[in-house]
Q: What sequence folds into this?
């Protein structure tokens, strides 16, 4: 990914985040490293636990991803941070999210973390 501009890399990684947020367990298995971990409110999940949770989830009715920032780590890894809002029925979830990708080829998710935002 080093030949791309920062803006293009950010766009690509946020597209992957959107695909994951709207995906099922199979999408997670395809887009994440086998050793990936997911740091969520009150729990840390491995890939299989997260994929199973996604399979059991009714999914979001709508999502928005804003305020994206790219953080280059080294030639083979980058992080992306952004604000996420997901709506399901009457429930709205807002959080700051961070994901770390191995980027020495097709980007592969290694670490994903949520920090819930206070209700407005």
A:
């Amino acid at each position: 990914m080093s030949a791309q501009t920062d803006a293009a890399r950010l766009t690509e990684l946020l597209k992957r985040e959107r695909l994951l947020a709207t995906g099922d367990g199979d999408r997670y298995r395809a887009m994440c490293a086998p050793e990936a971990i997911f740091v969520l409110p009150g729990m840390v999940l491995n890939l299989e636990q997260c994929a199973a949770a996604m399979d059991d989830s009714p999914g979001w009715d709508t999502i928005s991803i804003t305020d994206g920032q790219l953080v280059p780590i080294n030639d083979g890894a980058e992080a992306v941070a952004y604000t996420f809002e997901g709506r399901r029925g009457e429930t709205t979830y807002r959080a700051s999210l961070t994901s770390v990708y191995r980027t020495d080829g097709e980007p592969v998710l290694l670490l994903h973390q949520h920090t819930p935002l206070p209700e407005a």
Q: What stands out?
A: The mean pLDDT is 95. The first helix runs from residue 6 to 21. The chain is about 30% helix and 50% strand.
